[in-house]
């Protein structure tokens, strides 16, 4: 796949934001300022102020001498970075890879994305129109390299979409500053009369290195595509992701369902080619007002069964609020596992594979009450009740030992035993009565004791003597006495409930 990048330049980023916050300033010359070395200097000037000859870096006192009625506002520290981060998150509707280019731009890796909008020209036009609609002045360009796109977006005077392989031609008429060089290097080039890239791009590399250092050569190679440039995305790109833009905003549940099914079919086809299945999936809808709507599902075992996955999502589609319409749908699978064709064939068989039936049932229950309400436990090689089991996250995980069946165990074990007050006729006998949460229980039947010693190599303490008891209402409980009567008055606890 041909790698392509887009550079977006917000040339009035903070002042545009200020106008959005204070619309009355739209036609008023104003600047943002901050203290610098004991002086108040301009950090940003809007278009009206620039038309009066006021630019970034000037001292505010000098600006007022030029234009006495100039309005000055305090610049908010870190505001530009916050805005860029928000725009980078917004741009994820167009590409999975978006990076911040401080202090006034974004870099997008748009490889394989533009065709969804009908080509790079429509893609670029749509992004610029959206940002202009939000009240921000931007310029953007597309090229094979970050350096070329960055240069043309800021200093280009030609078509902003550079055809593949033609980044050198696009750079020739640009000033040296377009290569993102240090100020000292730019000054040195100007003193030698090298006012455009064309004047030195074909000079011997040894001469350029000797006069201007390796940084110039590195920036040239990055812009030309001879040296790879790494960008730092705001969030890692999901390797399993499908996108579906809408020519008209979608506002109805049937439209959302059609988009979801198409994305599931595309994603599951890809997963099938790679012998994988998903365990977690997220369906996102980007509204035309910039808001994001999303729902997610999880599965008990890896699956690429379109119908099963669609039914899980279908339970949550009603929670999506399309408002004025959704312009882009996205489906991503952040968690996938290996799933061979033989394993996937089990999903097509009914009645003879309990594991598949259980997995489907659990997925549907999780979609209604939440995955956190469902737990699977496996036996662990410990006698101490709290340590005798472990929680499993997959139906495919196998136990390392067998459940103990030689002694009764409660179906509901409390995570922490709760203290109770008991009445015991004589030591080593089960209780006659016990109080639990303010209720008196009369014991009609009892069995025990079963002594369970602590695993001293893990934890020190006294042993427990457990009793299975039944009260007058037929409810059954698992009680224990901690320690001996010989060591003082022992404490009693309730640890579990039988069915």
TL;DR of this structure?
The chain has 499 residues and is an alpha+beta fold. The protein has helices spanning 13-21, 47-51, 60-66, 79-90, 120-133, 146-155, 167-171, 183-191, 205-212, 214-224, 253-273, 306-314, 341-345, 354-369, and strands spanning 5-10, 30-36, 39-45, 71-74, 97-101, 105-109, 138-143, 241-250, 276-287, 292-303, 326-338, 376-379, 389-392, 412-423, 433-436, 439-452, 464-471, 476-482, 491-497. The strands form 5 sheets. It has a 6-stranded antiparallel barrel. Strands 5-6-1-7 form a 4-stranded antiparallel beta sheet, with helices on both faces.
Topology:
Layout: E1 5-10, H1 13-21, E2 30-36, E3 39-45, H2 47-51, H3 60-66, E4 71-74, H4 79-90, E5 97-101, E6 105-109, H5 120-133, E7 138-143, H6 146-155, H7 167-171, H8 183-191, H9 205-212, H10 214-224, E8 241-250, H11 253-273, E9 276-287, E10 292-303, H12 306-314, E11 326-338, H13 341-345, H14 354-369, E12 376-379, E13 389-392, E14 412-423, E15 433-436, E16 439-452, E17 464-471, E18 476-482, E19 491-497
Parallel strand pairs: 2-4
Antiparallel strand pairs: 1-6, 1-7, 2-3, 5-6, 8-11, 9-10, 9-11, 12-13, 14-15, 14-19, 15-16, 16-17, 17-18, 18-19
How would you describe the overall organization of this protein?
This protein is an alpha+beta fold. It folds into three domains: 1-237, Reverse transcriptase/Diguanylate cyclase domain (Alpha-Beta Plaits, 2-Layer Sandwich), CATH 3.30.70; 242-369, 2-Layer Sandwich (Dna Ligase, domain 1), CATH 3.30.1490; 375-499, no CATH class. The chain has 14 helices and 19 strands. It has helices spanning 13-21, 47-51, 60-66, 79-90, 120-133, 146-155, 167-171, 183-191, 205-212, 214-224, 253-273, 306-314, 341-345, 354-369, and strands spanning 5-10, 30-36, 39-45, 71-74, 97-101, 105-109, 138-143, 241-250, 276-287, 292-303, 326-338, 376-379, 389-392, 412-423, 433-436, 439-452, 464-471, 476-482, 491-497. The strands form five sheets. The protein has a six-stranded antiparallel beta barrel with strand order 14-15-16-17-18-19. A four-stranded antiparallel sheet has the order 5-6-1-7, with helices on both faces. Helix 9 (205-212) packs across helix 10 (214-224), helix 11 (253-273) runs antiparallel to helix 12 and helix 12 runs parallel beside helix 14. The longest helix is centred in the middle third of the chain and has 21 residues, at 253-273. It starts with a strand and ends with a strand. This is DNA polymerase Y family protein. Belongs to the DNA polymerase type-Y family. It comes from Taibaiella soli.
